[in-house]
Amino acid sequence: MGCGIFFLATFAFLYYTIWTLIMPFVDTTHPIQNVFPPREWAIRIPVMILLLAAGIIGSFLGIVMVRSTKPRAIRQ
Q1: 3-class secondary-structure state, position 27
Q2: Number of C-beta neighbours around residue 38 at 10 A
Q3: pTM for the whole thing?
Q4: Is the C or the N end of the chain the one with fewer CB within 10 Å?
Q5: 20-51: pLDDT as tens digits
Q6: Helices (H), the chain
Q7: In this structure, are residues 64 and 56 in contact, taking their beta carbons and an 8 Å threshold?
């Protein structure tokens, strides 16, 4: 399981790096350009992922804060 996740992360990193750093210098008519989406998605995808992650983390923190303010029973 760990090896699979490692290879998936390595593939994603290499794909994104090639897409953003190398492909702008390759001719637009070259067939390798068909393997990659348009360049504007190189910014949109990470921004969407960051917004989703921030929303999830913010929701989690909000739920934890609301639950922690409930009155607790007084022990005697």
Answers
A1: coil
A2: 8
A3: 0.71
A4: C
A5: 999 999 999 999 999 999 999 999 999 999 99
A6: 2-17, 41-68
A7: no
